[in-house]
Specification:
The structure holds two protein chains of two kinds. Chain A has helices at residues 2-17, 35-53, 57-81, 228-234, 261-277, 297-309; strands at residues 21-23, 30-33, 85-92, 94-95, 101-107, 112-119, 125-131, 135-140, 146-157, 164-179, 210-216, 238-243, 250-253, 282-286, 289-294. Chain A is α+β, with helices and mostly antiparallel strands. In chain A, the strands form four sheets. In chain A, strands 2, 4, 6, 7, 9 and 10 form a six-stranded mixed β-sheet that branches. In chain A, strands 1-3-5-8 form a four-stranded antiparallel β-sheet, with no helix packed on it. In chain A, strands 13-14-15 form a three-stranded mixed β-sheet, with helices on one face. In chain A, helix 2 packs antiparallel against helix 3. Chain A starts with a helix and ends with a helix. Chain B is of the alpha+beta class. The longest helix of chain B is centred in the N-terminal third of the chain and has 26 residues, at 20-45. The chains are: A alpha+beta, B alpha+beta.
């Protein structure tokens, strides 16, 4: 029975709270007495019994005060929460153990107190004691290497007095990539394949420069390629343009690296990071996927994602 | 250790002070030591002590309290242990959850004070402590500062108290379903043995003993002799309480209307107070054969009962053993007094004459009334008093007279109770204080029954009128015996007024809050709502509660509406009636445009603008007169604009 209710509730939450932006309203806010609240109710009953048996109106009044206080707490706890917005701004992919996390924005036009954002899978939480306007919170998600669906955030408040728990959920399907932690790899690897057609080893460096045309010099172009001959002649800065110019390209292959799976991935990660920092084109080959040779930020991210997905 | 918990320790300190009289010095010392320990630990060590140490301290504390309070006094012991446990928990608390538990538990611990005392002052203190406790709870659970959290708690409680009061009034009262042991309260009061000769200074207390509401004041007139206890056995030094004092007798009386009500303060004795021969129709109140009332249990809270004066006088004759009992005297004591009484008896024909002789003797011999008599140590106490000391208080005179009457065979007994009453005109009731305690004599005349005789009145007739506090010649002695209290300060202007005011509030509190029981609730609701009272009161409670929840909800949900300053309002109004109501002009541009349009209003418009800018930019107020003239301006511009269109 209990598990069925739980299952039903989980399904209900998934249906209702799956979004990257939630505005909490009466149909998505849950209010119950907290643990302290239950003790409080117990003491209220105790006072009631005591007040009746001693026919002591003052103790009875204390018990009524406690009862009404609890009701007021439920109400003001709800109001503290009502129309609070929560938006998942972004997910920070990063290396394992580094700041992987999610940036969330609490949207509010009035002051609210004691808002706790808790990530259910990892159990990490952030407490915002006072919200006056839109506030950005960063929830760390300390996952191991891999790809994860972010899943549920639970937003809790114990305001006021900690006697009630008001909560709601934000269920996100966004994926979080946790890359392997780079591990230094000394051995030179120059195994390269090109294209999607297979394992063509292109160990030899392609250094055939074919002159194409002269372009006017622009700020930021390498001075190496300036045609000084033209400059000497007519004081004009022109740059020589070559076709099929490519720097040294390298390829990283999972199978050629030593160690267990995680070690290999870490080493590959190091190589990928190094290569992209040096703006060196590279390709990556894993047993289940290959990334053709490339360069640039998106290439780097693609490779890192493949490494975390493995 | 959490600094906020120091406040909780302070709350326990206040509780200790308030329960000092009931729980005693060992309790106060233990808690104070623990509080000092807490503060030191917090200041110098900054972490909680080990559990082993705390357990040892707890054991020691429990032993001390168990021995000093005693296991028979279960309620006091329970409360003492509760405070001890809470204080230890405060020292031990390691995390936030434990801190919260302490605060929630305090909602039980703090109201325990009400078991011992329910007066207005106690209530204010307890409610204040609860509010502070709630503030600390909020501060700890939201990691807030103490001050804003307490402010929030105060706001909430102020909202809640009227609602709770409503609940107390309208929710049906349930009778108690278990008999719980009552708390023992420490109160000065009547003693069951009257021993005047060993007292050197009559300790006076200005505590209230009880209050009386005489519904037919004409039926009773001062002096008010409130009978409480009968003493029928004299052992040479003290008079002992009659054994039948707590044995109920069944008095058949068809007329059970109540003549007056008495509201007794908490006491550790079951004896109640009434004028003359009394019967009561209140629950748990019985009459004994002496016509005095007693309660079937000792009460730690105020208790209201009805009294009816028995119409027919009690017994007209005494049985043989009763006669013996009321003429019993210790053998061979007080020969001189006995001899003196015998002489009077020989020269008189009736009891009345005997009393007249006695009265004449006491009045001629220069006896004095004093609250600070000398201690009489000889075995012949009454001889020494009558022939040597000649100064004493009511107990001395009553003892002497009763003993002398007994010695000549007149059945007599000592009665202790209270004499006098302080009348409160505003609320039509009488207050009787502990310092009004009195003792007098009753003697028996065949076919007439028991008669009252107050020998103190011969010596100090003033004592019969009103309360002892109004006694002029004794006022100095009286005040010095009282110590520091409002009655003692009654010479200071304003103090008497203050005392009577406080007394009045306390009376109302006692009558309407503390003694609001089932029957009072029913009659109140009946007066208010008529025949369907019970149904209607339930409906009203539910309706009000619902309404209240809704209104709180709407109030908190409301959009915060910022009130615009008057100057801006008028400006907007002017703009809306003018032809330029849709333009985006600055106020200055707008005014100049309008004055172009209506040149005849130029001066008025300029004046308005000067006031407007003074109000907006210089922080001056926009006066009512300016408002009037502006309204006029707006009106004429409105009509003119309309005409143009």
């Amino acid at each position: 029975m209990r598990s069925r209710i739980k299952y039903w509730f989980a399904k209900h939450v998934d249906q209702k709270h799956t979004a990257d932006h939630m505005l909490f309203k009466h149909d998505s806010i849950y209010v119950l007495p907290s643990q302290s609240g239950l003790l409080f109710i117990g003491i209220m009953l105790l006072n009631f019994i005591l007040g009746i048996n001693y026919q002591n109106n003052l103790i009875l009044a204390v018990s009524y005060i406690m009862g009404v206080l609890l009701v007021v707490s439920l109400l003001s706890g709800y109001i503290n929460f009502n129309r609070l917005g929560l938006k998942l701004l972004s997910v920070n992919d990063n290396h394992e153990g580094v700041l992987t996390g999610a940036r969330l924005e609490l949207e509010s036009t009035k002051e609210r107190y004691n808002i706790i954002i808790k990530h259910i899978d990892t159990g990490s939480e952030v407490t915002v004691s006072e919200v006056f306007k839109n506030t950005i919170a960063h929830v760390a998600l300390p996952y191991k290497r891999g790809v994860y669906t972010i899943g549920r955030f639970k937003i809790i408040s114990h305001f006021p007095f900690g006697l009630v728990t008001v909560w709601s959920y934000l269920h996100s399907n966004k994926a979080l990539h946790v890359y392997p932690l780079p591990k230094e790899e000394k051995t030179e690897i120059k195994h390269i394949f090109t294209g999607a057609d297979g394992d063509t080893n292109v160990n030899d460096v392609q250094a055939i420069d074919e002159f194409n045309e002269l372009k006017p010099y622009q700020q930021g172009m390498s001075l190496n390629k300036v045609s000084w001959r033209h400059f000497a002649k007519n004081q004009q800065l022109l740059v020589k343009d070559y076709t099929s110019e490519q720097p040294v390209s390298v390829g990283f292959d999972f199978d050629l690296i030593t160690g267990n799976v995680e070690e290999r991935l870490s080493k590959l990660c190091f190589l990928v990071v190094e290569a992209s920092n040096n703006q060196q084109p590279f390709a990556l080959k894993l047993p289940n996927a290959t990334v053709p040779i490339g360069t640039g930020q998106s290439h780097r991210v693609k490779c890192l994602e493949i490494l975390s997905e493995y | 250790m959490n600094t906020k918990l120091l406040v909780i320790s302070f709350i326990y300190l206040v509780m200790t002070v308030m329960l000092f009289a009931e729980l005693g010095i060992p309790f106060a010392t233990s808690i104070s030591v623990l509080i000092v320990w807490h503060v030191t630990q917090w200041k110098y060590i900054k972490s909680a002590p080990s559990n082993a140490l705390l357990n040892i301290v707890a054991l020691i504390g429990m032993t001390v309290l168990g021995i000093s309070i005693g296991f028979s006094n279960s309620v006091s012991l329970f409360v003492a242990l509760m405070v001890l446990a809470c204080q230890l928990k405060v020292i031990q608390a390691k995390n936030e959850k434990q801190n919260r538990q302490i605060m929630v538990l305090n909602f039980f611990t703090i109201p325990c004070v009400f078991l011992f005392s329910q007066d207005l002052f106690t209530t204010i203190v307890v409610v204040t402590m609860l509010v502070i406790n709630l503030g600390v709870l909020a501060a700890i659970s939201h990691k807030q500062q103490l001050y804003p959290a307490t402010k929030m708690a105060v706001k909430n409680i102020l909202l809640i108290i009227p609602v709770s009061m409503l609940l107390v009034v309208f929710l049906p009262k349930i009778p108690s379903f278990w008999q719980l042991p009552g708390a023992q309260v420490a109160r000065t009061g009547l003693s069951e043995n009257v021993d005047p000769f060993s007292i050197s200074e009559l300790s006076q207390s200005d505590d209230l003993a009880f209050r009386a509401i005489l519904e037919e004041p004409t039926a009773y007139s001062p002096p008010f002799y409130w009978r409480a206890l009968i003493h029928d056995k004299f052992d040479g030094t003290s008079w002992h309480m009659a054994r039948e004092q707590n044995i109920p007798v069944n008095v058949v009386n068809s007329d059970i209307s109540s003549d007056y009500k008495v509201i007794a303060e908490p006491s550790n004795l079951p004896w109640l107070f009434a004028l003359g021969n009394a019967i009561s129709n209140s629950d748990e109140v019985s009459t004994n054969q002496f016509g005095t009332l007693f309660s079937s249990k000792v009460r730690s809270r105020n208790f209201e009962y009805n009294v009816h004066t028995a119409t027919e006088s009690s017994k007209m004759s005494l049985t043989r053993w009763e006669y013996q009992r009321y003429t019993q005297l210790p053998q061979k004591l007080n020969p001189k007094s006995t001899e003196l009484a015998r002489q009077w008896d020989n020269n008189t024909q009736s009891t009345q004459e005997f009393i007249a002789r006695m009265r004449a003797y006491f009045m001629a011999q220069g006896f004095e009334y004093t609250l600070t008599p000398e201690v009489i140590e000889s075995a012949n106490t009454i001889d020494e008093f009558v022939f040597e000391k000649k100064s004493g208080f009511c107990g001395h005179y009553a003892s002497s007279v009763a003993m002398m009457m007994r010695s000549v065979g007149i059945p007599s007994r000592l009665v202790s109770g209270y004499l006098g009453a302080e009348y409160n005109e505003a609320n039509d009731y009488y207050s009787i204080y502990q310092y009004d305690a009195h003792a007098w004599v009753e003697f028996f005349i065949p076919n007439s029954g028991w008669q009252r005789l107050d020998p103190t009145a011969w010596i100090s007739p003033e004592r019969l009128i009103g309360s002892l506090s109004q006694h002029t010649t004794l006022s100095e002695q009286f005040k010095s015996n009282l110590g520091i209290s409002l009655v003692a300060l009654s010479g200071v202007p304003g103090m008497e007024w203050l005392r009577l005011k406080l007394e009045e509030y306390d009376y109302k509190w006692t009558r309407w809050v503390l003694n609001f029981d089932k029957s009072k609730q029913q009659s109140f609701l009946h007066d208010l709502l008529g025949d369907n009272a019970q149904f209607l009161s339930g409906a009203i409670t539910l309706f009000t509660l619902g309404l209240l929840c809704l209104s709180v909800f709407w109030f908190m949900q409301r959009k915060i509406h910022i009130k615009r300053p008057l100057a801006v309002d008028l400006y907007e109004h002017l703009k809306s009636v003018s032809p330029y109501h849709e333009s985006n002009l600055t106020p200055l541009q707008f005014i100049s445009k309008v004055s172009e349009q209506f040149p005849e209003h130029k001066s008025d418009l300029d004046e308005f603008y000067s006031h407007f800018s003074a109000a907006r930019y210089q922080g001056k107020t926009f006066s009512g007169q300016h408002r009037k003239s502006t309204m006029k301006l707006i009106k004429s511009i409105k009509t003119k604009t309309k005409r143009k269109l």
